[in-house]
Backbone:
């Protein structure tokens, strides 16, 4: 049994799941090993290289491109459930590693703040470093360019978790305190564990975002400094209507949304929300999020 098949089998055995998701997962499980993820190397506009892993679309023609970015300290090796899930939905999905905010960078920030500062201070230092965000935007642009040469479909998604959710919002047009400006080059945005007002975003930072956005959090998705998960809903409240969605997964933690921590149920729920959101965009029914078991869905 391949890793993909095993992942799908586990997911299908964990209720609840929808018939649509089940069909997509079964389709993925039947894919041959020839469609295994491909390790690639990207060259940014500043000539710095970044590692990435690409997941080929499992339907023809390609539905679109999805650039997936890990949180602070993460790498291209993670978030496999998102790569496989979006691949099953027909997207060429690319998970990008970030030289300025990967594991090595996090360790450097921790030591730079002294051993006494520990992980929390290291994370704060990394997630408020403007150069790390500028580097991430260049990584994503390189990944998008690589994918565009292999999939000419009009749809393009920018997906990010945690620190990368902040980058997704910056790229979409959110105002920020780090003087980082995005180019709004994607057709839709998906932010997992987004941040509220604080060291990165001022009040009303998200008012000017115009394109479709999906925000996903969980009822145990605590922010840095032990802030309530409810602060992560602030961007949705602030955005103007027009295909803006919020999904709150019951019981999901920050690590669950990253695809870690015994999170099969959460992974399945996140993929359901993403699939429903993307279908809503395509069908022109963004204003009606509908209902999903175990997930509170809101739209405007």
Residues:
């Amino acid at each position: 049994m391949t890793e993909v098949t095993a992942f799908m089998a586990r997911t299908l055995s964990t209720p609840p799941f929808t018939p649509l998701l089940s069909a997509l997962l079964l389709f993925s499980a039947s894919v041959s090993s020839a469609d295994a993820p491909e390790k690639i190397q990207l060259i940014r506009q500043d000539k710095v290289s970044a590692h990435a892993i690409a997941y080929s679309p499992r339907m023809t023609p390609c539905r679109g491109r999805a650039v997936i970015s890990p949180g602070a300290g993460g790498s291209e090796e993670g978030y496999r459930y998102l790569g496989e899930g979006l691949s099953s939905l027909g997207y060429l999905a690319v998970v990008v590693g970030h030289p300025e905010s990967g594991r090595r960078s996090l360790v450097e920030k921790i030591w730079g703040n002294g051993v006494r500062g520990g992980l929390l201070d290291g994370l704060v230092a990394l997630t408020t470093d403007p150069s790390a965000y500028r580097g991430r935007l260049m990584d994503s642009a390189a990944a998008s360019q690589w994918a565009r040469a292999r999939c000419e479909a009009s749809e393009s998604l920018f997906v990010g978790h945690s620190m990368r959710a902040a980058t997704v919002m910056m790229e979409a047009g959110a105002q920020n305190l780090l003087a980082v400006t995005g180019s709004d080059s994607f057709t839709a945005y998906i932010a997992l564990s987004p941040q509220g007002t604080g060291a990165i975003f001022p009040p009303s930072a998200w008012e000017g975002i115009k394109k479709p956005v999906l925000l996903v959090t969980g009822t145990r998705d605590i922010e840095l400094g032990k802030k309530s998960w409810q602060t992560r809903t602030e961007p949705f409240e602030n955005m103007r209507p027009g295909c803006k969605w919020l999904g709150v997964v019951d019981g999901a933690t920050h690590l669950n949304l990253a695809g870690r921590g015994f999170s099969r149920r959460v992974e399945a729920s996140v993929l359901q929300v993403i699939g429903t959101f993307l279908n809503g965009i395509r069908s022109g029914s963004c204003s009606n999020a509908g209902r999903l078991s175990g997930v509170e869905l809101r739209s405007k």
